[in-house]
Design brief:
Elements (H helix, E strand, L loop, with lengths): L4 E2 L3 E9 L3 E8 L4 E8 L7 H15 L9 E7 L2 E7 L6 H8 L4 H20 L2 E2 L8 E3 L5 E3 L6 E2 L21 H4 L6 H17 L9 H10 L5 H4 L5 H10 L11 H19 L18 H13 L4 H4 L23 E7 L26 E2 L15 E11 L3 E5 L5 E8 L8 E2 L4 E3 L2 E5 L6 E10 L9 E2 L1 E5 L1
Antiparallel strand pairs: 1-2, 2-3, 3-4, 4-6, 5-6, 7-10, 8-9, 11-13, 12-20, 13-19, 14-18, 14-21, 15-16, 15-17, 15-19
Helix pairs in contact: 3-5, 3-9, 5-8, 8-9
């Protein structure tokens, strides 16, 4: 099919992957002049109404999921007897390829990626979908190191009682298949919890827990055997992390985390404890902007750990502590300021109406008082979800500046954010200049800014876990 043009618009350039039901190609969208991923159903399935409906259902399912960690559906169509779905093109490798290439991941990075994957799946669950085929091959990593879940081809509605795939039919990939799925029983959120537990196990050990020579042999091991202890293979993994993985992989769904959101919340706590144990700033090495791609996630993180362990730049990486008696922890400036920023407005392009997110309170984040704060609107969700890709706080410098660090103090720890940069306070903010991090009471983002910028954006993508309904930013400091 290379060289063909589908629907008079999508010019197929290269085969990038193939499965039993479809193939995936890189294509050029002639209309919008951009790269896209084109998933094309194999032609011999085109006359089977059941397969056609399953393929169409995938497009509808994913099109309803607007989340930064889910691959976006752009279009769906037909070309002759061939069905196709158009996705955003993610220029990077999948998680399986990275594991095979680099081996076991640093614990902190494995947790961060599992949190991103789990957040995407939790969002899907909130919208009534269970993935049923969670595996590293279905997690794409873009140039900024963000994980994006794809291939909802066998996703099933949590509301369906009599759908196309009935109890008794086994679907999924054997290395990551939950016991109830392997036995053809009904599936739910906890089926994806189990699979993500296996994915995290593999990230930490570079091995699947139940290798065997056939689908049936692997499935029987998932049904009957406990997973081998992670710490026998990887002693540096904290006991709490191992316990979380083993709970996620419990044989009975009722013994696992009750929801994906609960699993993610525990991984967040593990991540926080790991940061506290080292007393250094959270997060991995900064993600590069679209102008300078990173070649590998594993060695960058390892290099950062070595650098910190050696004591290099200790004054930069350790949190500043100037506590006074009786002062709340969040009142401490997280970073000695050497560059002045002013919070000028909120940024809410996905709001209703757009742009209204307590704009007038924005200056409170840089007024020098830790007792005042800019807050997001309240979102009535128990899953730390905003119901949209994000909301942000715009910061303005007096003149363009290449920031190296940006510190945030908050009274609502636990929300996830990333730092972006742009040319205008009204957006867009095309450059991602930090990694995604969970913001604790005092958190410093390390930035990689390719050029001097005047406007920076604190882009919040998730609320704090545990039922918190908003995120607050009490204080922002920066250094160049």
């Amino acid at each position: 099919m290379v060289g063909e043009v589908l629907a008079g618009r999508y010019e197929i350039e290269e085969l990038v992957g193939a499965g039993g039901m479809s193939s995936v190609y890189r294509a050029h969208d002639r209309l919008l002049d951009r790269k896209v991923a084109l998933k094309v159903m194999h032609q011999h399935y085109g006359d089977d109404p059941e397969y056609v409906e399953r393929f169409r259902r995938e497009a509808r399912s994913v099109a309803s999921l607007s989340h930064p960690n889910v691959v976006t559906v752009i279009d769906r169509g037909e070309h002759g007897s061939r069905q196709f779905i158009v996705f955003e093109y993610v220029d990077g490798e999948n998680l399986k390829q990275l594991i095979e290439r680099r081996g076991p991941a640093p614990v902190e990075l494995a947790l961060e990626l599992a949190i991103q994957i789990g957040s995407a799946l939790s969002f899907a669950h909130q919208h009534g979908l269970v993935h049923r085929d969670v595996k590293p091959q279905n997690v794409l990593l873009n140039g900024d190191g963000r994980a994006k879940v794809t291939d909802f081809g066998i996703a099933r509605s949590l509301e369906i009682q009599h759908g196309m795939t009935q109890t008794g039919t086994v679907l999924g990939t054997s290395d990551y298949i939950a016991p109830e799925q392997a036995q053809g029983q009904s599936v739910g959120q906890q089926t994806d919890v189990y699979a993500l537990g296996v994915v995290l196990y593999e990230m930490l050990t570079a091995e699947v827990p139940f290798p065997a020579e056939s689908f049936v042999a692997v499935a029987m091991r998932h049904i009957n055997e406990p997973p081998p202890p992670i710490r026998d293979r990887r002693p540096d993994v904290p006991p709490r992390v191992e316990a979380a993985v083993h709970r996620a992989m419990a044989k009975k769904p009722a013994d696992r985390f009750p929801t994906m959101a609960a699993f993610v919340a525990e991984l967040e706590r593990c991540h926080g404890e790991l940061q506290g144990a080292t007393q250094v700033l959270p997060g991995r090495a900064p993600a590069r902007s679209r102008r300078a791609r990173r070649s590998s996630a594993w060695p960058v993180v390892t290099a950062l750990v070595v650098l910190i362990s050696a004591g290099a730049a200790a004054g930069v990486f350790f949190l500043v502590r100037h506590e006074t008696a009786g002062s709340p922890a969040h009142s401490l400036s997280p970073l000695p300021p050497t560059a002045h920023l002013s919070a000028v407005t909120a940024y809410d392009p996905f709001g209703h109406p757009p742009g209204q997110e307590n704009n007038a309170e924005a200056p409170l984040a840089t007024d020098g008082s830790a007792t005042t704060a800019w807050e997001t609107e309240h979102y009535y969700s128990t899953f730390a979800a905003l119901g949209k890709p994000g909301v942000g706080l715009v910061l303005e410098a007096a003149k363009p500046v290449e920031l190296r660090q940006l510190g945030i103090a908050t009274q609502t720890p636990g929300f996830r954010a990333i730092i972006k940069a742009g040319d205008s306070e009204t957006g867009p903010f095309p450059d991602t200049v930090s990694s995604s991090q969970v913001v604790q009471k005092k958190t410093v983002f390390t930035l990689t800014v390719p050029q001097a910028e005047r406007f920076y954006l604190i882009w919040i993508t998730e609320l704090p876990p545990g039922g918190a309904q908003y995120a607050a930013i009490n204080d922002v400091t920066a250094s160049s």
